Fold:
Amino acid sequence: MSNVTDFEDPFQRARAEEGVLEIDVDGEKIPLVLRYEDVRACTRDWQTFSSDAPFRVPVPSEESMRPTRQLPIETDPPLHTAYRALVQPLFNRARSPEYIGAIRQIVVAVLDDILVGQEFEFVAGVALPLQSKALTVLLKLPLDEAAEWTSWGTHVFHSGDVPAQEKGAVLDDYIQRKITAAKATPGDDFFGHLVTCDFQGRPLTREEITGFANLAFAGGRDTVINTLSFVAHFLAIRPDQFERLRDNRLLVRSAVEEFVRIASPLTHIGRVCPAGAEIPGYTIPPDHRISLCWASANRDAAVFAAADRVLIDRRPNPHLGFGFGAHACLGASHARLVLQQFIERLCEKVGQLQIIAGVEHVESWPGYDRKIGFKSLRMRLASG
Structure:
């Protein structure tokens, strides 16, 4: 981060000059589509830029990390539409008063835990348990399940010294245990819903249930954690903006959208071109990949004035931080609510945040380095 106001954009030059940046991912050359309108156009054309590619939508690919395709994200319409409709009611609950109240209680409890002392580690002590506990509300599972999820770390595949394949096996073992238990005694939770629902006149297979569950636990985990750490760091280095939010809570919603735009916790996501494709400067051979760069599109100066600055009152804010089109993030409402409740409760309970030390999370590939939140963030605070 260059200073307290502007945030680095590693895609700025390539976006302005070529509109595409080629990166090398484990020997595979993948062009990133960088401009806002080009990214949106690709999301609309799912026939050319397909998500019907098991394991290849994430970049890098995840064949060695999980046993089955993630659902519904690794399918295209009309199958994607039908799969998504199965779980959409669970995610729509994030707008209900009961759901909002449950997330508020979790945020208050997590903040109360750190308010007993003056110093704390934010990522492991706040963001990780908060995300894990909030997920129990989304999935309608007992709160004590969060302890096991927290033990997995910030990412179910890519954190710590444990190889990704071993971490993936830990997640799959948990999922298989939950599916078996739900089949024996279905409840009204996420797993109970999946084992009892009707899909096109038949029950879901175990493989399909595994695909839904794998995405539920992997998809919104590190993204939420990294965004929370970005927000905490920003409010510490910009106490004037913290004060604005405290004085005018109506700004919280627009601030959340702006934090997601700048943080863009999922840098880019892959698409496979079954019949090949043309993008600016590139002819993509059949069955090769491109990637849609949300982080670059969200800094496009053709769309966002002062694109490298956090403007907590920015409106309109048509960012792509939750994707766009048919495959837009299912958990967007949940993630927005967690961020809103975190900021609002922070405004109520904390007078000032200060940074003691931080280690930024840097995503590095031959072609770019990008800072996304923090691996660790030691902070101190004063009560509100």
Notes: Residues 227 and 263 are 6 Å apart (CA to CA). The longest strand covers residues 350-365.
